[in-house]
Automatic annotation (TrEMBL):
Keywords for the protein's UniProt record, in alphabetical order: CBS domain
Protein name per the record: Magnesium transporter MgtE N-terminal domain-containing protein
Domain CBS: 352-410
Keyword Heme: no
Zinc among keywords: no
């Protein structure tokens, strides 16, 4: 390695961009892989787990890392694009070591691991050299004292532990986007994944579930108690919740729908009533809907909602009462780009695209794709025979259904291996 700090801590490596020799970003660091031989031999750092384009997780050997500096990881560019799989002799530093209960031998202090220091040894191998330990908190909301000690002074670092917590692993995931957090959670051992899921809020878990492969979604949801599973489904977008419930057994699906808030369950049931891979099944029943007397300022206030995807925020639908789907008659849609050019006090009705073609709920996935492509749209309204707005199909939902099953794991990086 040509350039490297004397010591690097694992928590600071997670999320760092990985660059090739040309300066192009090829991925992000997700974890560190260490080889654990015994309690008495210093663990060797074998490499990094990185996400590359298409969210394929690969192994980057430390021999391919040329520099770690300025919040970046640089590589030789010679990377094997085969999907990473953890071997029985290997340990994920963040995924498995964090939150492990250990004892500091010289002092007798008992605490949990919250970070691990990595250094390059004289033989040029990377090794785990330091362990950051936090004692249990004393008193209400008081954090326990922290210690950073030599690896050899720690007992229990490599011992598998039943009921291992997830406090520090959750902290490492806090600043990651849902898709990135989902990539980390996907690779965790079952017991660690369960601990992380238990520590996530319902809203955060819902966001992460939407980014996980279908089999992971089902496995996680079925492991939750009925009340929490229903709460998480309520936090998901109705179309994603409908897709997930459809993958469950009929008995489990019925139980969860009954446990959900009736209003939330009603939207999900309506989406599930449409045939698979149709506009009705793919649409969201919660686009931005306003009345004819709403102003541009009102519309812009609605699209500032941070929970809206960019696609759904691109169009505002003007409808007669009621304004919840199924609405009154759809009068037209206003493009956000047009609204940004209008005075805030102008009525949205004056900026309507009242000639926008609509989709019927039974439109096939091919018809939806052709419609969006023909009119250069990222979202389109879905209406019934009476012209009432039922929802909107966004391009991101369309892609989720058009891409092959397992694309999250198997999508190759454009251009092949580096």
């Amino acid at each position: 390695m040509s350039t490297a700090p004397a010591r690097v801590f694992a928590a600071r490596l997670v999320g760092l961009p990985v660059f090739d020799p040309r300066g192009d970003q090829v991925g992000k660091v997700r974890d560190i892989v260490a080889a654990v031989r015994s309690e008495n031999s210093q663990p060797r750092v074998l490499g990094l787990v990185a996400d590359v384009f298409g969210r394929r997780r690969i192994f980057v050997p430390m021999t391919r890392v040329t520099a770690i500096e300025s919040g970046q990881v640089h590589t030789t560019g010679l990377l094997n694009m085969r999907r990473f799989e953890l071997r029985s002799t290997e340990t994920l530093v963040v995924g498995q070591m964090f939150d492990r209960t250990v004892t500091v031998r010289p002092t007798g202090v008992v605490g949990t691991v919250y970070d691990v220091g990595l250094e390059r040894a004289r033989n040029r191998d990377w090794v785990i050299s330091r362990v950051a330990v936090q004692e249990p908190g004393k008193g209400f909301r008081r954090k326990g004292q922290t210690h950073t000690v030599e690896w050899r002074d720690v007992d229990g670092l490599f011992r598998r532990e039943d009921g291992q917590g997830a406090t520090h692993l959750l902290a490492a995931l806090t600043d990651l986007r849902p898709a990135d957090a989902a990539a980390v959670i996907h690779d965790l051992p079952v017991e660690r994944r369960s601990a992380v899921v238990a520590g996530l809020t319902d809203e955060r878990l819902a966001d992460v579930l939407e980014e996980l492969p279908e089999e992971d979604q089902v496995e996680i949801l079925e492991a939750l108690d009925t009340e929490r599973a229903a709460d998480v489904l309520e936090e998901m977008s109705p179309d994603d919740a409908a897709d997930l419930i459809a993958d469950l057994s009929p008995e489990t699906a019925a139980t969860l729908l009954d446990a959900m808030d009736p209003a939330e369950a009603k939207d999900v049931r309506r989406l599930m009533s449409y045939a698979d891979l149709t506009a009705g099944a793919m649409m969201t029943p919660e686009p931005v809907i306003i009345s004819p007397d709403a102003t541009v300022a009102d519309a812009l206030a609605h699209v500032r909602n941070p929970d809206l995807t960019p696609a759904l925020a691109s169009l505002v639908y003007v409808c007669r009462q009621p304004l919840e789907t199924p609405t009154g008659r759809l009068l037209g849609a206003a493009h956000i780009q047009r609204l940004l050019r209008e005075p805030p006090s102008t009525l949205v009705a004056a900026a309507l695209d009242d000639e926008m073609d609509t989709l019927r709920p039974d439109a096939s996935i091919e018809q939806v794709a052709a419609h969006l492509a023909t009119y250069n749209l990222v979202a389109a309204p879905v209406v019934d025979e009476e012209g009432r707005l039922l929802g909107a199909v966004a391009v991101d939902d369309l892609l989720d259904h058009m891409l092959p099953e397992g694309w999250r794991d198997n999508a190759p990086r454009p251009g092949g291996a580096l």
